[in-house]
Write a structure and sequence with these properties.
Layout lengths: L7 E6 L2 H11 L3 E5 L3 E6 L2 E7 L9 E6 L3 H10 L18 E2 L5 E6 L5 E6 L2
Parallel strand pairs: 1-4, 5-8
Antiparallel strand pairs: 2-3, 3-4, 6-7, 7-8
Length: about 120
């Protein structure tokens, strides 16, 4: 039943103005709605609701990610927007923070202003 529907991504945020600035401004997603409860953006056909919470502890894993065709170009574009990419001990990452898996897929991680870990992935 749900296979033919469109998913909605949820990400917790503590400041809706910062969420709008990051998700609509820095990442360039289309702003669809804003209320006292959430900032809603659209990335392609996927809706992302940056939902206001009073407090939360960011999780130690990726909560939202995007598949890209050219990860180097995507990383360079985001770095130009002052997005900082994460480096992890034990992973052999490029100088831009891109890790290549043993299978050849490539992944890079960054955080939103609230500490949520986000990722880019390029699959072979």
């Amino acid at each position: 039943m749900l296979n033919s529907t469109r998913p909605i991504g949820f990400v917790p945020v503590t400041d809706l103005s910062k969420a709008r600035e990051f998700y609509a401004g820095t990442l360039g997603f289309d702003l669809e709605d804003e209320s006292p409860f959430a900032v809603v953006v659209r990335c392609g056909t996927t809706m992302i609701r940056a939902t206001k919470v009073e407090e939360f502890t960011p999780q130690p894993f990726t909560v939202l990610g995007w598949q890209v065709d050219d990860i180097d170009e995507a990383v360079d574009t985001l770095r130009a927007q002052e997005v900082e990419f994460l480096f992890f001990y034990g992973l052999d990452q490029s100088s831009h923070g891109v890790w290549t898996t043993p299978e050849g897929d490539r992944v890079a991680w960054f955080k939103d202003p609230f500490g949520n870990t986000l990722s880019l992935s390029q699959f072979v």
